[in-house]
Amino acid sequence: MPAIDAPTDAAAVAVSYALDQIGTPYVWGAETPGVGFDCSGLTQAAYAAAGIRIPRTSTAQWTTIPHVPVGDLEPGDLVFFEPGELSPGLPGHVGIYIGDGEMLDAPHAGTDVQIDALSDWPAPTGAARPSELVRRT
Predict the structure, then answer these.
(1) Are 128 and 73 in contact (CB under 8 A)?
(2) What is residue 79's DSSP assignment?
(3) What is the pTM of this model?
(4) Using 50, 70 and 90 to split pLDDT, how confident is the model at 70?
(5) Residues 6+ away with beta carbon under 8 Å from 108
(6) In degrees, to the nearest 5, what angle opens at C-alpha 132 toward C-alphas 64 and 98?
(7) Would you say 69 and 77 are in contact if contact means Cβ atoms under 8 Å apart?
(8) 15 three-state secondary structure
(9) Which end of the chain is more exposed for a tag (fewer CB within 10 A), N or C?
(10) Which domains can be identified in the chain, with CATH numbers?
(11) What is the Cα–Cα distance from 77 to 44, expressed in whole angstroms?
């Protein structure tokens, strides 16, 4: 596993949690370690481990978590991609940025939670920083 230097304690906990889930099967709608995750279930569980409540779906995460420019990504930030399966024009996939152009995600059926290069995906729709929610409370 790569060593991750996250900018906040919450981001470090979320990334560590997600790293521990590598190899867990993708299961649509799942959010349970050892059973399965979908992309947004993984991000929600990772931030719950850090004490931060975020919405369940990628669309809801995108519309409620403070955005940051993709060029300013820090470990622990969420990276969003189109197309939205359920809400056209909104992101349908999300991963957790871990640095060095890589993210942790649960990509799709038939895969497991894994590390993916951002360069293997289309350009991100955008990024969001759940750790900012702590600073606002």
Answers:
(1) no
(2) E
(3) 0.92
(4) very high
(5) 26
(6) 95
(7) no
(8) helix
(9) C
(10) 9-136 (3.90.1720.10)
(11) 12
What is the residue-averaged pLDDT of the chain?
A: 91
Query: Hey, what amino acid is at 110?
Result: G
Among the listed ranges 56-65, 82-91, 122-131, which one has the minimum average pLDDT value? 82-91
Helix (H) or strand (E) segment spanning residue 121: none
Please say whether the beta carbons of 108 and 26 come within 8 A: yes
CB 128 within 8 A of CB 78: yes
Q: What are phi and psi of 112, to 5 degrees?
A: -120, 170
**Structure token pair of residue 21:** 């889930």
What confidence score (pLDDT) does residue 82 get? 85
Q: Whole-angstrom Cα distance, residue 93 to residue 60?
A: 11
